[in-house]
C-alpha cells in the first residue's frame, strides 16, 4: 500500500517502522513542528521526524493541519491509507476523505474508554489494572470511529507512564503489523463503539500535577507514577513548588494529623499523612534544584515531624 503516516512522539515510531518492515511505501510523514526543549530552549524535532529523516522519508510539519497546504499535498498523493499514532491534531474531513481504504488510528487505550490525548497517563492516575491498544477507523469525532482490532496490556503496580508507554509502543506496533493485511485485502472488521461506555482522557494540565493531600495515599501514588517521568506531581514547601517523583504508600497506624503533615523524616524518606494512610516520599525535587533522593535533601533541610506540605511550610 501507499501510506501517509501521521505521528509525533516516541510512541508512534515503532508503528512507522512496522509499516516499512511490512513492505509498504510511506509517501509522506506528517508530524508536529519542532519545539524548544530543555533549559536552553533548543529547537528540537519530534521523534517521528527524526525517525523519518533517518529513513529518507519526506516530512511535513504544519502548525495547524486544517489550515495548511499539507491537506492539498496529501490529496495530491492519493494514498491508499492514512495511519495515525499520537499525531496530536484532529484530522479534518478533507483529509479523512482522501484515502480509498480510509484512515486508521493506533490509540493507546481500550476504547471506548480513555478517548483523548492522555490515555496512558490517566489510566495509571485512575488506578486501572489494565489498558491496551485499539486500532480504529477514524471519524470526525474524538476517537469515536469503529474499532478494527484490540490488544490488552496489564498495568503493573509499579508501572509509570514511562514504562507503560514502552509496553504499549511495542504492543501497538505489533497489532498494526497484524492488522494491515486485512485492511489491504478489504476484509477488516469494523465494530462500532458503545458510546454510552465512553470515558475521556484530556491532555494534562498543571492542575493535574498538584497533589491534594486529602486524597488517599494510594490515589496520590497513582497520580505521581502516572505523571512520571514527564512532569511529576508537586506540592508546596515554603510557598514554592516541591516536586515528587517517587513515593509509595506505607503501612502505619492511624493518625489524627492533618493531611500534608510530616510524620517522619529519615534515611528511608519523608512520611506524609494523607486523607487515608501515609505516603513515603523517596525521590523529590525542591524549587531550583535537581531531582534527588529525599534522604539526600534531608541532610540540609532541617525538616522535622509536624511540618506541613501544601501550604507555607517551615524549614
Automatic annotation (TrEMBL):
Entry protein name: Methionyl-tRNA formyltransferase
Purpose of the protein: Attaches a formyl group to the free amino group of methionyl-tRNA(fMet). The formyl group appears to play a dual role in the initiator identity of N-formylmethionyl-tRNA by promoting its recognition by IF2 and preventing the misappropriation of this tRNA by the elongation apparatus.
Catalytic activity: L-methionyl-tRNA(fMet) + (6R)-10-formyltetrahydrofolate = N-formyl-L-methionyl-tRNA(fMet) + (6S)-5,6,7,8-tetrahydrofolate + H(+)
Domain of life: Bacteria
Family note: Belongs to the Fmt family.
Entry keyword annotation includes Protein biosynthesis: yes
PROSITE patterns: GART
CDD domains for the chain: FMT_core_Met-tRNA-FMT_N (cd08646), Met_tRNA_FMT_C (cd08704)
Domain Formyl transferase C-terminal: 204-301
UniProt keyword list: Protein biosynthesis, Transferase
HAMAP family: Formyl_trans
Organism: Paenibacillus glycinis
A Pfam entry, by short name: Formyl_trans_C
Residues that coordinate or bind (6S)-5,6,7,8-tetrahydrofolate: 109-112
EC class of the enzyme, as a word: transferase
Annotated Formyl transferase N-terminal domain residues: 1-179
